[in-house]
Each structure stands twice: as structure tokens, then as C-alpha cells.
Design a protein that fits this description.
single chain; 434 Repressor (Amino-terminal Domain); disordered C terminus
């Protein structure tokens, strides 16, 4: 019964509201990831924004309507993009050249120090003799 009430209520929420919350949560998650990468806390961000920590907490809740001006200010302070349009993303990531390579290791080679992951069978999958890659 409770489940039907919740799903019924959710189905009555307009699609644009669901999209709004989804996009806001995406932006918040992006900001949290950037903060973590920089080793910053919400308090650090608040200080740099000249705002109270509670303002930043509300901003990152995913429910506050962040203006483009606010997002732009955040991008400047964080020194990175928060929002990237598909065209800009294409330009940015087409410029990056990706290279794939394979490393083969002789499991009997004692000159290579073992890591904590070696007990998981990684050495069992390695080859017994290195191959030259041309």
C-alpha cells in the first residue's frame, strides 16, 4: 500500500521537475567530485565564495536552482568546467589522443616488486616470456 502511494505520487510529478532535480544532482555530484579531487571541503568552497557553509550545503543539495552566473563563478573558483555542452565536450575530447598498450610481465622475474594485488591471481595470468611489440 505504501509503495503504491509513493510510486503514485512520483508519477504525478511533472517530467520537467524530475529533469530539473536530475540535472541539479548531476551538477552537485560534479562539484563534489571536483572538491574531492582538490582536497577541499564545503567549508573551503564557502570561504572562497564568501558565503556561509550552510549556503554552500544548500547549493549542493541538488534542490536549489543554480543560475548560470553561480555555476560560472563556481567554475572560476574551482578552475575547471562543471558543465560542458556536447559541442564543447566534442572539441575538448577529440583533441586528446588515446593510446592503448599491453604490458607483459614474466611472473618469475624477481626484479619486479610484487604488489598487494598479486595475491588475487594477477601473476597467474601473466606470460612467461616478454614479447617485443613493434
Amino acid at each position: 500500500m505504501k509503495k503504491n502511494l509513493i510510486s503514485g505520487a512520483f508519477n504525478k510529478v511533472p517530467t520537467e521537475n524530475k529533469q530539473f532535480v536530475s540535472k541539479n544532482l548531476d551538477i552537485s555530484q560534479q562539484i563534489f567530485a571536483i572538491l574531492e579531487e582538490k582536497g577541499w571541503t564545503q567549508a573551503d568552497l564557502a570561504k572562497r565564495l564568501g558565503k556561509h557553509k550552510s549556503d554552500v550545503s544548500r547549493m549542493l543539495s541538488g534542490l536549489q536552482n543554480l543560475t548560470l552566473k553561480t555555476i560560472s563563478k563556481l567554475e572560476i573558483i574551482l578552475e575547471t568546467d562543471i558543465i560542458l555542452t556536447p559541442m564543447k565536450a566534442k572539441q575538448k575530447f577529440e583533441a586528446i589522443k588515446y593510446v592503448t598498450f599491453t604490458v607483459e610481465v614474466n611472473k618469475n622475474d624477481n626484479s619486479i616488486p610484487k604488489t598487494q594485488h598479486d595475491d588475487l591471481g594477477a601473476w597467474e595470468k601473466s606470460t612467461t616470456s616478454p614479447k617485443k611489440i613493434a
